Amino acid sequence: MSLQQQLTAGIQACVKKIYSADVPENLVQIQQTKKEFEGDLTLVVFPLLRVSKKNPEQTAQEIGAYLSDNEPLVTGYNVIKGFLNLVVDEKYYLQFLMDYASKPGFGYSPVTPDTELYMVEYSSPNTNKPLHLGHIRNNLLGWSVCEIIKASGKKVVKTNIVNDRGIHICKSMLAWQKWGNQATPESTGKKGDHLVGDFYVKFDLEYKKEIAALIAQGKSEEEAAKTAPLILEAQEMLRKWESGDLEVRSLWQTMNEWVYEGFDVTYQRLGIDFDKIYYESETYAVGRSTVLGGLDRGVFYQREDKSVWVDLTGEGLDEKILLRSDGTSVYMTQDIGTAQLRQQDYDFDKMIYVVGNEQNYHFKVLSLILDRLNYSWAKNLFHLSYGMVELPEGKMKSREGTVVDADDLMDEMIGTAREMANELGKLEGIPSEEQEAIFQMIGLGALKYFILKVDPTKNMTFNPKESIDFNGNTGPFIQYTHARIQSILRKAAETGAQATFTPAANTVITAKEKSLLKLIHEFPTVVQEAAKNLSPALVANYAFELAKEYNQFYHDHIIVQETDVSTRAFRLALTQTCGQVIKTAMGLLGIEVPERM
Question: Which helix (H) or strand (E) holds 390?
Fold first, then answer.
C-alpha cells in the first residue's frame, strides 16, 4: 500500500471517529506540500466540510490533531487556511529506501495477463526525403511515450506507417528520370534518403520555373500550378503506379529501398525501433475497398466526376474527399485501411497517433468515418497532437531544401559536445575512444532532453548551443550528475565503505536528506502521471529536479569521508539510489548516462 493510500485510510478512519461519517476516497484529496510550507503531504479540507459542519481551519485543526495522536505515519501538522499540511515520519522514508527504492525495477509497474494493449504510431515518414528536425521530435516523443506507458504497467506495440506511395514520391522519381543521370547512393556517396530528397527539391525548383513561365503567358497562378507539364507528368506516373505499371513500380521499389536503408541508419543512431511497420502501398488498397463498400451502403456518396466523399456537416465539420475522380486514393483512404489492419492484427485497446497538430482535423475525421462504418473500436483512437519545432532562424520547408536533416543535426550536436567538453576540460585523463563514446552520449542526450522536456502540446524552438550547456535544465547537466554519483561510489568502494544500511530507532536525517528521499518516493507517481498524460516532459523535468536536489545535498553533506559508519552507509545508499533513479528516468527518454565525465 502506498503512502497516499495509507494516509487516505487513516483520514477516512479519523473522519469516521470524530464526525461519525463515512467519506469516499475521492473526497480525500492529498497532494504534495508546496515547498514554501512545512510538511510533506497536504490534505485539502474543503471537500470534508460537508461532514464536519465546521469552518476549514477548525476542521483541519481537528483532523490534524487526531492524526498526530493516532496515525503512526504522521508526526506533526500545520494549518494554512483550508489546507492541512502533514509531516510524515522520517522512518517511513528510511524504510522505503531500504525496502523499495534501492531495488531494480523501482518506478515500474508489473504487467499482468489482462493488462490493456496500447498501440502507438510514430515516425510516419514519406519516402521522398530524409528525416528532419520535425521527425526527430515525432520519433523521440513516440518512442518515449511507448517506454513510459510500458513502465506504467501496460502492454505496448510500437508501430510505424511509411508513406511510400503518392504524388510526393512520384515527384522524386520523375526528377530522377529527367535529371538523375542514373545516380545511385553508391555512385554519389550519399545516403539513399538524402539522394532521393535532393530530387524532390529539384522537382520543386523546376516546377516553379514552369509555373512562372505559364504566368508570364497570361495564366493565373492557380491555373499555372494545375497545368504545368511537370505536375501533369507526376500525376500520370501516380496513375500508372496504381494500375501496376511494371516500369514505374520497378523504379519506385528501387528508390524506396535507397530511402529505407538511409532511414535505418538514422533510426539506429536515434535509438528508435518499431515492433511492426505498415506501408501505405499495402494498406491503401484495404482502405479503398472499405470506402467503396461504404459507398454501396450509402455511408458515402459519389459526385458527378466519380470522386467519393463523406458528408460530416452534421458533426460540425465539412465534406471530405476519400477517392479522387480518377480513382486514386488520398491519405484518409490509407489511414482507414491501416486502422483496420492494425485492429485485425493486434486487437488493441487503445490506438495513439503521434502526429503534429496540423493534422488535428484529419484525425477527427478519421475517427468519425470509422464510427460511421460501425467499427466499435473507433472511439479508442487518440491523437497525441504535438506542437511544431523550429530553429531560431524560423520554419523549415522540405521542398525548398531548407530543412535541417536529422543526420546533420546529430553530427552537429556530437561535434558541439566534443568542443564544449574539451573547452571545459571535462574529460581530461579519459582514453580517446571512451571520450568519443561520451561525446555521442552528451550530444544525443542534449538533443533528446531539450526536445522531450517541453510539453508535447507546445510549439518549441530548438537551440543547439543552449541544449548542450552543462548547467541548467539540460541533458548534459543530468548526465554529469550521474557521472558524479558514480565517481563517489567508486571512491567509496576503494575505501571499503558500504552502501547498505538498516534504519535504527535513533537514526536522524537532515532536512535536505528527507527532501531527497521524498523526491525519490515520487518517481513511480511521476511515471504513472506521464503515462496518463502521454507526456515525457514530466519525466524529463523530474530527472532535472532530482539531479538538482542531489547536487545541493552533495554540496551540503560529507559522504565518503563521513566518520559515522551508519550515517555514511545511509548517504551512500541515498547516493546510489539517486543514480539509479536518474538512470531509469533518462532511460525512459532514450538517453544514456555515462559512468564518468
Answer: strand 389-390
Of the candidate CATH numbers 3.40.50.620, 3.30.420.40, 3.30.830.10, 3.60.21.10, the domain formed by 122-390 belongs to: 3.40.50.620
* Residue 361, H or E segment: helix 360-372
| Separation in Å, CA 99 to CA 95, 471, 535 | 6, 33, 29
Task: Say if residues 44 and 31 touch (Cβ distance below 8 Å).
Answer: yes
Segment 479-522, tens digit of pLDDT: 999 999 999 999 999 999 887 877 776 778 999 999 999 999 99
Asked whether 470 and 477 are in contact (CB, 8 A), the reply is yes
Q: What is the pLDDT of residue 390?
A: 84
Query: Topology of domain 3-88, per CATH?
Result: Gyrase A; domain 2 (3.30.1360)
- What tens digit of pLDDT does each residue of 199-208 get? 999 999 999 9
Give Cβ neighbours of residue 40 (< 8 Å, ≥ 6 apart). Answer: 32, 33, 85, 86, 87, 88, 518
User: For every residue of 297-347, which 3-state class applies, written as one string?
Assistant: CCCCEECCCCCEEEECHHHCCCEEEEECCCCCECHHHHHHHHHHHHHHHHC
Amino acid at 386: Y
366 closest CA partner among 391, 331, 325: 331
Write down the H helix ranges in 114-166: 133-151
**Cβ–Cβ < 8 Å for 85, 78:** yes
SS3 of residue 352 by DSSP: strand
**H or E element that contains 269:** helix 246-270
Q: Where are the alpha helices (DSSP H) in 496-534?
A: 511-521, 523-533
| Global pTM value | 0.92
Contact indicator for 126, 248 with CB cutoff of 8 Å:
no
Whose grid coordinates read 492541512? 84
What is the pairing mode between strands 381-386 and 350-356? parallel
CA distance 155 to 586: 20
Non-local (6+) Cβ contacts of 159 within 8 A are 119, 120, 121, 122, 274, 275, 276, 277, 278, 342
Q: Nine-digit cell at 8?
A: 487516505
Contact 116, 157 (CB under 8 A): no
Q: Where in the chain is the domain with CATH 3.40.50.620?
A: 122-390
Q: Starting at the earlier edge strand, list the strands of the sheet with 319-323.
A: 301-302, 308-311, 319-323
Q: Which fold has domain 412-588?
A: Isoleucyl-tRNA Synthetase; Domain 1 (1.10.730)
Tell me whether strands 83-88 and 117-121 are parallel, antiparallel or unpaired.
unpaired
Residues of the chain with CATH 3.30.1360.70: 3-88
DSSP category for residue 473: S
